[in-house]
Design brief:
The complex is a heterodimer.
Chain A lengths: L2 H35 L4 H16 L2 H14 L4 H26 L8 H8 L5 H15 L1 H16 L2 H6 L8 H10 L4 H28 L10 H6 L4 H39 L3 H29 L5 H12 L1 H13 L12 H25 L2 H10 L5 H31 L2 H7 L7 H11 L2 H34 L1
Helix pairs in contact in A: 1-2, 1-4, 1-7, 1-12, 2-4, 2-12, 3-12, 4-7, 5-6, 7-10, 10-14, 10-15, 10-16, 12-21, 13-16, 13-18, 13-21, 14-16, 15-16, 15-19, 16-18, 16-19, 17-18, 20-21
Chain B lengths: L1 H7 L13 E6 L3 H15 L2 E6 L9 H8 L10 E4 L3 H8 L3 E2 L21 E13 L7 H9 L6 E4 L4 H14 L1 H13 L3 E3 L2 H9 L5 E5 H9 L4 E5 L9 E9 L5 H11 L2 H9 L17 H11 L5 H18 L3
Parallel strand pairs in B: 1-2, 1-3, 6-7, 6-8
Antiparallel strand pairs in B: 3-10, 4-10, 5-8, 5-9, 5-10
Classes of the chains: A mainly alpha, B alpha/beta.
Chain lengths: 485, 336
């Protein structure tokens, strides 16, 4: 199969998955917003939110490993294999689109900008282009950004495809490129083969940057969210959204757990009793630490990039990340093998640089969305309120500042670190000799057929950051309550 | 926290160990079997070994390619010793001038067909290419396998992608034995009949163990994972027309211009020792000892493998055509 055929197949799948995900994510979004406005049931609300976001946090390794034999049973039908893979992608696409819809303030029913523009005489091309932009930014921003963002994510997906692929199906460009390079294609040719995908992703990302930037301060439209909340949950949203979430939870959580639960406990016992238990815990902790550093540095880089008001500069900076983890990692590796950087070759620098660059496009998307979510004026008002004489008002304002300013950033940081922690390509190519990231170890365990240990280490790698996050949250809430007193 | 920092920043920081008392090993052998052996070497010699394993995620992209790229432009090598889990990739490195000869005294234990005449590399502890058969579906006999392979449909027969790993070596042996035209015609024919190509030997094993396929090509270490798990499988060696088997030894070599040559020589001597071969034979991978051994008995299943390995084909002719086979398969796969 040629690169063009593999690429075309992948693009069509991405566009289909991103498009099918749109109504589903809209339904899930309405369900979440309606449920949030409903009285009581705090635990079930939290469960609903977790269900909606779960596919973004379940490692692709676990999903692919769990479903690889199911895909294998479909080996006699290429259509079934393709549909099965597309379904797994759809779960992630809907979750990402839901996050974007949650973060971008919902559009109003009417827009003064569009109304005024329509009053202007003349129907030149420029008029129509501006009319289109205004309509997109005023009414369709969450939909457009969600669609483009999920299409980029689907295009870059590699691990699930690699694990469920038999013969040539599903046909996935990232896997095709990996195989071509692994079979001996030189780096220069791999870069050339990657170019169409790079151009395509740039075409998807640039409109996102332009649209989000030109959407203006949507704070005044915040009230538009209220009516949908007030309506509560519509029955059709409850049925379709609920069914979809149940499917997502089953495929990404229940089935993997059910398939591996028996091995989990014996695997945990084996890990804890083995002589290398300390090494394994240290390996997990250092992998989390390393991923967090890369996530933090990508956030810092994007914040610095935001000072450039020129879209072309920003786009150029995120381009390496769009080339995908394989080509990017190989380029970074080659750069650190040059005499001028050779001194840093066997350090942790290549991994940090590679992972930071890989995260930049995703970070940029999240930051753009977050900045829209927490307009400066709202934050400023909340900060002023923290000086209120009434303690309840001041405490509520502090909570508001936290919600407006930091909660979204924390979520973005966690999501980025999570993606980084579970990306095996950058980790395996760019790590130094003395640091073995846990995710590369997991692939080894899978190959050795030691599924008990694989499941146990996966569970620990998932649970340790979660436990850490809970501990941090507990400490923070203690601090807040102490300040309230 | 300090340990975490040290681990992450390990490449930058020295942990106080004398630089002459450590070395860097690139190891393509599975970590679970290699780690205890490396630990034993560290215990015996006091030399600290920093190991980079060949991640399964990377397939063949890993260590051989990495060593090739590190060996360019006369740069100072990072790696001291390469422990490959087969031989043909090591021979490619030798041809590229990446390896430095070292005549280990332990190397004389091995038959000449398992080592380089100039001692650029030495083979030890091998695996065999085998058919793994689901015994619920068909008997694990040569006749039954031949019948399956001669049939019109190969939809229930699995092989790993031939561009990588031991299947590439297997293809190279076939080309060396039967010629390029035969291999291409055979490859086209099995594809036409629907042979299942999966991404690795372990996936082949799983398909057969689960009954999704009836039989596959794989290696003995993968086959034993299914056998030890009590799956309904049996194995028999892949044989060429003249009855010879395909044994793929591990190989060990020193890297040209490596930073710790003395420590590297000690590690190579250690890896080629009888004790290490016995340890690998006793592991669940049942690596087959290829050198002379004393009279202590081996496990029963390893003795059977040893008999099969003694009938194996020489890999030198396969090494000659290995790159050509890879180039052809790559061109075919990428539609060039």
């Amino acid at each position: 199969m040629t690169a063009a055929a593999a690429f075309a197949w992948t693009v069509v799948r991405c566009l289909c998955v991103a498009s099918v995900a749109l109504p589903l994510s809209a339904t899930v979004h309405r369900l979440l917003m309606g449920a949030s406005a409903a009285v009581g049931g705090r635990r079930s609300k939290r469960l609903l939110w977790i269900s909606a976001l779960l596919p973004l946090f379940v490692p692709d390794l676990l999903t692919g490993f769990t479903w690889r034999l199911t895909a294998a049973r479909m080996v006699h039908s290429a259509v079934a294999t393709e549909l099965f893979y597309a379904t797994l992608l759809l779960l992630k696409a809907v979750a990402l689109q839901t996050v974007i819809r949650l973060l971008i303030i919902q559009p109003p029913d009417a827009s003064p900008s569009v109304y005024c523009w329509q009053l202007l005489p003349g129907r030149s091309i420029r008029w129509w282009l501006t009319w289109l932009r205004l309509n997109l930014t005023e009414f369709r921003l969450p939909t457009v950004v969600a669609w483009l963002g999920s299409a980029v994510m689907c295009l870059q997906e590699f691990e699930i495809a690699a694990l469920v692929q038999i013969d040539r199906h599903p046909i996935v460009f990232s896997v095709w490129l990996f195989d071509a390079h692994a079979a001996g294609e030189p780096l220069r040719r791999s870069v050339m083969l990657m170019l169409p995908a790079l151009i395509w992703q740039t075409c998807l990302l640039v409109p996102v940057i332009l649209l989000v930037r030109s959407s203006g301060d949507r704070e005044l439209n915040a009230a538009a969210r209220t009516p949908s909340i007030a309506k509560g949950v519509h029955r059709s949203d409850l049925v379709f959204g609920g069914l979809f979430l149940l499917t997502a939870v089953w495929m990404t959580m229940i089935q993997p757990f059910a398939a591996n639960a028996a091995e989990l406990f014996s695997g945990l016992k084996e890990v804890i009793n083995s002589r290398s238990a300390g090494t394994r815990f240290l390996q997990i902790a250092s992998s989390i630490f390393s991923a967090s550093l890369a996530a933090g540095s990508s956030l810092v880089v994007v914040m610095l990039l935001r000072r450039f008001r020129r879209t072309d500069v920003v786009t150029c900076c995120v381009l390496p990340g769009l080339s995908g983890p394989l080509v990017l990692s190989l380029l970074v590796l080659a750069a650190f093998q040059l005499p001028v950087l050779r001194v840093l070759y066997d350090t942790w620098a290549p991994l940090l640089v590679g992972q930071t660059l890989w995260l930049l496009p995703r970070t940029l998307l999240l930051v753009l969305v977050l900045e829209r979510f927490a307009p400066a004026t709202s934050v400023h008002c909340a900060i002023l309120q923290t000086g209120a004489r009434r303690r309840e008002v001041a405490a509520r304002a502090e909570q508001l500042v936290w919600e407006l300013r930091w909660r979204g950033w924390l979520l973005a940081f966690v999501l980025l670190a999570h993606w980084c922690l579970w990306d095996v390509t950058t980790a395996s190519i760019l790590r130094s000799v003395r640091f073995e990231p846990v995710v590369t170890r997991l692939y080894g365990e899978m190959h050795y057929g030691r599924s008990e240990v694989l499941v146990a280490i996966t569970a620990l790698t998932l649970l340790l950051p979660f436990a850490g996050l809970l501990a941090v949250t507990a400490v923070l809430s203690r601090l807040v309550s102490w300040r309230k007193r | 926290m300090a340990s975490v920092l040290l681990t992450v920043l390990g490449g930058c920081a020295s942990d106080g160990q004398d630089e002459s008392e450590r070395l860097v090993l690139y190891c393509a052998h599975d970590a679970q079997f290699a780690e205890p052996i490396i630990a034993e070497f560290e215990r015996q010699t006091g030399i600290r070994v920093d190991v980079r394993f060949d991640e399964e995620a990377n397939k063949s992209l890993g260590l051989t390619t990495l060593l090739m790229s590190e060996g360019q432009d006369g740069q100072q090598a990072r790696c001291d010793v390469f422990w490959n889990n087969q031989t043909l990739g090591t021979i490619r490195l030798q041809k590229a001038g990446i390896l430095q000869p070292w005549h280990s005294s332990s190397a004389d234990r091995f038959p000449e067909r398992f080592r380089d005449p100039d001692f650029h590399w030495t083979g030890f502890a091998g695996r065999l290419r085998v058919y793994l058969v689901n015994t619920d579906q068909m008997p694990a006999t040569q006749e039954a396998v031949d019948q399956l392979l001669d049939g019109e449909s190969l939809l229930r027969f699995a092989v790993a992608r031939p561009m990588f790993g031991t299947t590439l070596s297997h293809y190279s042996v076939l080309q060396a034995e039967y010629g390029e035209d035969w291999l291409k015609a055979w490859h086209t024919d099995v594809r036409r009949r629907g042979v299942r190509e999966v991404r690795g030997n372990s996936m082949c094993r799983d398909l057969v163990a689960e009954g999704i396929c009836d039989a596959c090509w794989t290696d003995t270490d993968d086959a034993f994972v299914a056998l030890d798990a009590g799956r309904p499988v049996g194995m028999l060696p892949v044989r060429l027309d003249d009855g010879r088997t395909i044994c793929l030894p591990n190989s060990v070599a020193m890297i040209r211009g490596c930073p710790h040559p003395e420590a590297a020589k000690r590690l190579i001597d250690f890896l080629l020792s009888e004790d290490v071969e016995r340890r690998l034979a006793a592991s669940s991978a049942r690596q087959i000892p290829l050198g002379t051994l004393d009279d202590r008995p081996l496990p029963d299943d390893v003795r059977q493998l040893q008999e099969w390995a003694s009938e194996s084909v020489s890999l030198q002719p396969a090494a000659e055509v290995n790159q050509a086979v890879l180039d052809w398969l790559t061109a075919e796969s990428t539609g060039q």
